[in-house]
Input
Amino acid sequence: MPDKTLQTLYVEKEMCKGCGICVAFCPKNVLEIKNNKVAIKNLDACIQCGQCELRCPDYAIYLGGK
Ligand code: SF4
Ligand code: SF4
Output
């Protein structure tokens, strides 16, 4: 089994303006907008495709880790 925790999804809430672009582009419905900020709804479903990071205009969400 591949280690799903190899990369973690990080959110910088102060930088997020709640535009919802990442939510729209996420193919796995991992993200949602809550109180005008992005929130992680279902991290288990994340396939680490990087679309959210790529599409966010404000560098507020990214994959990182080991
Ligand atoms: S890395 Fe891909 S699957 Fe994971 S939250 Fe971002 S867009 Fe969704
Ligand atoms: S694309 Fe970036 S700024 Fe827009 S909701 Fe997602 S994390 Fe926030």
